[in-house]
Recover the amino acids of this structure.
DNA sequence: CCCATAGTTTGCGATAGCGCAAAACGGGCC
DNA sequence: GGCCCGTTTTGCGCTATCGCAAACTATGGG
């Protein structure tokens, strides 16, 4: 059980207001682990034996239907928790988590949660805040899927990814982990073909520059406009 | 400030494990109010000055886009909380709540929440459970919108409503509050026209019986089959 | 009892986006 | 340096579903 440096996590909202010694007590229950690119962290349906905090890398959470279709629930960025199934009353993971890049995580055994919450009640409140904001995002996504067309949804998805995990370049923003057309399709409820067509279109207008699992927003502002444009307002 | 009878709420999961006197202490901070059918309880964007527990009736939570389109986030059944924006870190309500039937609610001022949580930490944990299960439902909804066609989504929506608020009849299940084609469209990401066509079709097959803001599932089992059927499996 | 209103049904194009298929491409591995 | 595999691109027909328009019908109020 490796010692974890508190300085790595002290600034996270999850631990806001914790004293150094409390933090240490919490971290003592965790171990850290490294997951190489494309390795599975846990599988949908498996017993939720642990919950996680991402330190480095990027993790994709995806949900699969009985018939094998997938959607991407979200991408986890460093500093975020994931796999907190048990905190919300689930005995099994509702989704599959995969490292999309070499990643480092902290792992707490599920059994530690009730103990920690009892000792540090504010953990429950902060977790409530994070879960609440994920609920918000889900509602936004439902709203978009109900009212917008595919191009706008893709625009929104890319902007969110850029905000969450964008690397600022001299001219533009690059999404900082490998992501395929298929992934974007699964985030926006469409097919990889349609995503490919949309990106090709944008590329020819100089809005983006993209290739194999790689996307750079060259003109974020114009993409914002695209994302917000009312379908039947301006001409093509 | 009317006295509220603890027996009305003691059995709710939210208050599981509370002693009678604790419960009384909590209820002392609440007042109750009655909202007539079709009246607004709070508006999207308004300051979240209170949170609510529905005692009788039914409440619709809906979200509106800047361009005026709406989706139904959920229907609230008796015993459920709603308007808990501030518990998840929001200063304004993210949706509009409307009583779809004459309704009675308990109302706590937002200011009471931090105090209550400090005094009764398990409130945060139970709220975490409810918010978590709503997150689950949202993900399910996103999955359905991404992978299923409209008819299946409508089937699922009606089955969920029937389970949550269905009144068992001699032969079938009636959804126990007024709900229009438009409402169902806004729950499933389609138009009232398409919903109407689908219900007409089902009606002629004897699966449902419906009219003005009224739906009875006459053959729930066949609807389950419809909901689960793989789009390109059986013949029409 | 009749009218006004909100909800529902239905017809008829129009079309965004899917689904299939095939080709081009790019990277990494041996 | 060449090959293999996963990813991306693109063409083309198809259809589920939308959007508009118009007729129809309960329901509650006066």
């Amino acid at each position: 059980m490796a010692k974890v440096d508190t300085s790595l996590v002290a600034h996270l909202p999850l631990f806001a207001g914790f004293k150094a010694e409390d933090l240490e007590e919490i971290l003592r229950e965790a171990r850290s682990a490294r997951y190489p690119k494309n390795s599975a962290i846990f599988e949908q349906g498996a017993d939720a034996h642990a919950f996680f905090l991402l330190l480095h890398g990027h993790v994709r959470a995806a949900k699969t239907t009985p018939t094998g279709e997938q959607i991407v629930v979200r991408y986890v960025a460093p500093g975020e928790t994931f796999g907190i199934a048990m905190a919300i009353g689930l005995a099994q993971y509702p989704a599959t988590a995969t490292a999309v890049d070499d990643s480092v995580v902290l792992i707490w055994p599920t059994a530690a949660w009730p103990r920690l919450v009892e000792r540090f009640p504010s953990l429950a409140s902060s977790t409530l805040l994070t879960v609440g904001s994920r609920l918000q995002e889900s509602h936004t996504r439902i709203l978009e899927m109900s009212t917008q067309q595919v191009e706008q949804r893709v625009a929104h998805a890319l902007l969110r990814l850029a905000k969450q995990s964008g690397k600022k370049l001299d001219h533009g923003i690059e999404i900082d982990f490998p992501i395929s057309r298929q992934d974007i399709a699964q985030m926006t409820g469409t097919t990889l073909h349609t995503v490919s067509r949309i990106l090709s279109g944008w590329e020819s207008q100089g809005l983006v520059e993209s290739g194999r699992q790689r996307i750079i927003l060259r003109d974020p502002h114009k993409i914002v406009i695209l994302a917000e444009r009312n379908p039947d307002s301006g001409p093509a």
Q: What stands out?
A: Chain A touches chain B through 37 residues (CB under 8 Å). The two ends of chain A are 59 Å apart (CA to CA). Residues 149-150, 190-191, 193-194, 197, 211-212 of chain A lie near DNA strand C (CB under 10 Å from a C1'). The mean pLDDT of chain A is 93.
